[in-house]
Amino acid sequence: MQIGQVSMRPVIELDELRLPSRMFIEGITFEDIEPHRHWLSPQFLDSETGDFRLSQHAWLIEANGKRIVVDPCVGHRRHRPLLPFYHMIDSPLLERLDALGVSPEGIDYVFCTHLHLDHVGWNTRLQDGRYVPTFPNARYLIPRAEDEYWRRELTGELPDAERYNAGVYAECIQPVVEAGLADLIEEGVRIADCLTPIKAAGHTIGHMAALLESAGQGAVLAGDAIHHPVQVLYPDRPMQAFDAVQARITRHALLDLCVEKDYWLAPAHFRPPHLCKVSKRDGEYRMEWA
Which of 46, 142, 169, 290 can pair with 153 through a Cys bridge, CB separation 3.0 to 4.6 Å? Predict the structure, then answer.
């Protein structure tokens, strides 16, 4: 996908996740799905079980002589027993980067929209019994509010409700900090003269999205502010989130941004083609796929 003069490509870690719809949107019914089943199924929906079908991928952006990885997935053979669909997976992410002609040493920036385990895993890799930065020449861009919240893991102060993410900061963030490669960022910084992180809180306390802009074109890299196309259809339905009210506000803000600017919507978990254009009519959002 070309966004103006910028290349943006998904790097797939898991081609498919099948997860219950209730993990993403509360109270979804057969009647809600039925008008859209003809295009949701089979790509985004298992019609027999009602499970949502999702992807696990990072984004590789190449612009102005720089390479950026956004949300580097789960990682290889990570111990995540509370989320069995991510537990001890054999991750092909580096091999798939290599197939695109990119080595870990060739990455200039890593941007994590938030610090959940499936967005930071390949920040580091195991080497001689310790975790070290996977991308040794990159600056790792981490939302400051996320770092302040999740680093409480190191002092045992992380709330019990977040135990599914236990160990992630120590494995995937602290080694980057200790290596001097981490930059704690806030809204407004610009990366490689094309990527601008923006506030998108709700899913987590300090979640950020990013605007990719070049030559009058653009994309909204939404991270986990939106997981699945059904959340575009029903953005006001509550979902599991750190702050469900703020998450709803953020969904609307990002969708409206796509509508107003005619930008692509590029979340972290949409299955192929991974991104879409968004329109709005009579107060309802609709999607047109790449």
Answer: 169
Whether residue 267 is preceded by a cis peptide bond, meaning omega within 30 degrees of 0, is: no
**pLDDT (average), residues 67-91:** 97
Tokens of 96: 């798939």
pTM to 2 decimals?
A: 0.96
- pLDDT for residue 290: 87
List 140's β-bridge partners, or say none: 110, 182
State both tokens at 135.
């991308």
CA-derived radius of gyration, the chain = 18
CA distance linking residue 200 with residue 159, whole number of Å: 22
Compute the distance between CA of residue 186 and CA of residue 171 in angstroms, rounded to an integer.
23
Provide φ and ψ at 233, rounded to 5°. -70, -35
pLDDT at 194: 97
CA 256 to each of CA 121, 228, 263: distance values in angstroms, whole numbers, following the listed order: 31, 17, 10
The structural domains of the chain, ordered by start, are 2-289 (3.60.15.10)
Tokens 């054999």, residue located: 90
Question: What percent of the chain stands above pLDDT 90?
Answer: 93
- Sequence-separated contacts (24+) of 159-167 with Cβ below 8 Å: 163/82, 164/80, 164/82, 164/83, 164/117, 165/115, 165/116, 165/117, 166/82, 167/79
The average pLDDT across 204-233 equals 97
pLDDT tens per residue, range 38-72: 999 999 999 889 999 999 999 999 999 999 999 99
